[in-house]
Design goal:
Elements lengths: L6 H12 L3 H18 L7 H12 L4 H12 L8 E8 L5 E8 L2 H14 L3 E2 L9 E10 L4 H11 L1 E6 L3 E6 L4 H10 L4 E10 L3 E2 L3 H15 L4 E6 L1 E2 L2 H7 L2
Parallel strand pairs: 8-10
Antiparallel strand pairs: 1-2, 1-3, 2-9, 4-6, 4-7, 5-6
Amino acid sequence: MSGHSKWATIKHKKGAADKARGKLFAKLIRQVEVAAREGGGDPDMNPTLRTMFQKARDSSVPLDTIERAIQRGTGELEGVTYESITYEGYAPHGVALLVEVLTDNRNRTGAEIKTIFNRSGGSLAEPGAVAWQFERRGVILVDGGASEDDLMLVALDAGADDIVDDGGSWRVTCEPSALNDVRAALDEAGITIESADASMVSSTLVPLDTAEAAKSVLNVLDTLDDHDDVQAVHANFDIPEEVLEAVEV
């Protein structure tokens, strides 16, 4: 999808380090648990749970760990009740951010997120100030070695809207409701999927044309993403490939 920032791609490239497991596993398990609580424990009847289940499996979360998270979500096992909150704000250079969290203590998490923004040169914004710039989309990253013709044939037929070259990967976008169908079609065709998730994307981009600017924004996103309660960070920046290489993310 033209105009989507490269944060999803950057996150994937950084993923090998992030999968030094514990924190990533904990976040994925929490997402599975909340999805089960909100929509029921049957992935066939709960598309959000199906997506979270697959996302956890993609990151090698053990099946029994996922199943226990589902049981906590449905009340079969005792668990913690998490509240979903989205914080809106700005990083340096006017980059808009949406920060999705799951927390069992709104006051603690709110104070910590505010501190991260303040220390990074950013600022929190009022609800609605940033969200209007984003829409939720299904985003699938496909191995760059896949044939563009084959990819287009399979993905578009399954419900994808667009396919773009994203610097070593193909980025396939679709409606969130079509994410599982597009993914299944790609899997069936033997096309290697690097990641698949529903993400908030923006067609209004802030270009970061220097390594200094890119680092200042990526540092904010890294710090937010490292917070235990933060499940996803969405941003509307765009970094040219040559600048991204200079930053060495």
